[in-house]
C-alpha cells in the first residue's frame, strides 16, 4: 500500500461565491466548514499519512482562530499559498513528508466524496503513475464569439476533470520544477506537459465543487445520500460539531 499525502488548495479569492462573510472552502455546510468535509474523507484512511491545507496569507489569523483546535487534534498541516492555484500547490508540495509515495491534490471546496472513488483513483495512480477522477461530458457544447455561436463542439472523448488528482511524487516534483512560472488550471495539465500519461478514473456528478452559494444547497443534499466514510484511520472527533457557533 502506498503512502499518500493530500494537498488541499484553499487560498483562492472565491470571487464567484459572492459572500461577504466566507470564502467558499470556509463556508458552513451541514454543520461544519466545507474544507472539513473534504479533509475528513482522507483523514479516515490508513493510507493517507499527511493532509496539507494551503490558505492565503490574509486568512491565516482567522483560520487559526476558527480551526486551530481541528488542526491540532486532527494532525493537519497548514501552509501559506501563492497568487495562483499552481503557486499554492507548489508551496504545499514543499511541505510533503519524505516517506510519501503518492501525492493527491484535492480541491478544498469539493466536499462530496465517496470512499470507492478515492480507492479507485489511488489504485490507478499507484499502478500507472498518474490518475484523476473525471466524468464524461454529456452537455451540448457551443463555442461562442461576441455573443454568437460559431461552432457546436463534438463532445465525444471530452471529460470534465475533477479531484482528487493523484501522482507519483517524483513526477509531480519534476512537473513543478519544469513549470517555470507557467500557470495551469489543474495539476494533470502540468504532468501532461512533463510528458507523462494520465489515466482517467470515472467519478460522479455528485463529486461537485462549490462555486456559488447555490452549490451549498445541492451539496447538503448530496452529503445525505453518500455513504459515510470508512473508519480505518483516525476518526474525526469534531464530526458532529457545528464549528461556527
Automatic annotation (TrEMBL):
One GO process term, biological-process aspect: isopentenyl diphosphate biosynthetic process, methylerythritol 4-phosphate pathway
Organism: Bythopirellula polymerisocia
Listed GO MF terms: 2-C-methyl-D-erythritol 4-phosphate cytidylyltransferase activity
Organism ancestry: Bacteria, Pseudomonadati, Planctomycetota, Planctomycetia, Pirellulales
UniProt cross-references to InterPro entries, sorted A to Z: IspD, IspD/TarI, IspD/TarI_cytidylyltransf_bact, Nucleotide-diphossugar_trans
Site feature Positions MEP for the nucleophilic attack, where: 155, 209
Feature type site, description Transition state stabilizer: 16, 24
The protein's name in its UniProt record: 2-C-methyl-D-erythritol 4-phosphate cytidylyltransferase
CDD domains hit by this protein: CDP-ME_synthetase
Physiological role: Catalyzes the formation of 4-diphosphocytidyl-2-C-methyl-D-erythritol from CTP and 2-C-methyl-D-erythritol 4-phosphate (MEP).
Recorded coiled-coil stretches: none
A matching Pfam family: IspD
Keywords (A to Z) from UniProt: Isoprene biosynthesis, Nucleotidyltransferase, Transferase
Signal peptide feature range: none
Domain of life of the native organism: Bacteria
Similarity field: Belongs to the IspD/TarI cytidylyltransferase family. IspD subfamily.
Reactions catalysed, as given in the entry: 2-C-methyl-D-erythritol 4-phosphate + CTP + H(+) = 4-CDP-2-C-methyl-D-erythritol + diphosphate
HAMAP family, alphabetized: IspD
EC number: 2.7.7.60
SUPFAM superfamilies, sorted: Nucleotide-diphospho-sugar transferases
Pathway: Isoprenoid biosynthesis; isopentenyl diphosphate biosynthesis via DXP pathway; isopentenyl diphosphate from 1-deoxy-D-xylulose 5-phosphate: step 2/6
Amino acid at each position: 500500500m502506498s503512502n499518500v499525502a493530500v494537498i488541499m488548495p484553499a487560498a483562492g479569492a472565491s470571487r464567484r461565491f459572492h459572500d461577504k462573510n466566507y470564502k467558499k472552502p470556509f463556508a458552513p455546510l451541514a454543520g461544519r466548514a466545507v474544507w472539513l468535509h473534504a479533509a475528513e474523507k482522507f483523514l479516515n484512511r490508513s493510507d493517507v499519512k499527511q493532509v496539507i491545507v494551503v490558505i492565503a496569507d490574509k486568512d491565516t489569523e482567522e483560520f487559526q482562530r476558527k480551526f486551530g483546535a481541528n488542526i491540532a487534534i486532527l494532525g493537519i498541516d497548514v501552509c501559506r499559498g501563492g497568487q495562483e492555484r499552481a503557486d499554492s500547490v507548489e508551496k504545499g508540495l514543499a511541505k510533503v513528508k519524505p516517506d510519501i509515495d503518492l501525492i493527491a491534490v484535492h480541491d478544498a471546496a469539493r466536499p462530496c466524496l465517496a470512499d470507492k472513488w478515492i480507492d479507485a483513483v489511488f489504485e490507478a495512480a499507484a499502478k500507472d503513475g498518474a490518475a484523476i477522477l473525471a466524468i464524461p461530458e454529456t452537455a451540448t457544447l457551443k463555442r461562442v464569439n461576441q455573443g454568437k455561436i460559431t461552432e457546436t463542439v463534438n463532445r465525444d472523448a471530452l471529460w470534465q476533470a475533477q479531484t482528487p488528482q493523484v501522482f507519483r511524487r517524483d513526477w509531480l516534483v519534476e512537473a513543478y520544477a519544469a513549470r517555470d512560472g507557467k500557470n495551469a488550471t489543474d495539476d494533470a495539465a502540468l504532468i501532461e506537459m512533463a510528458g507523462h500519461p494520465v489515466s482517467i478514473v470515472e467519478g460522479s456528478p455528485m463529486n461537485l465543487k462549490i462555486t456559488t452559494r447555490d452549490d451549498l444547497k445541492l451539496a447538503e443534499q448530496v452529503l445525505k445520500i453518500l455513504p459515510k466514510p470508512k473508519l480505518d484511520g483516525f476518526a474525526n472527533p469534531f464530526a458532529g460539531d457545528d464549528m461556527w457557533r
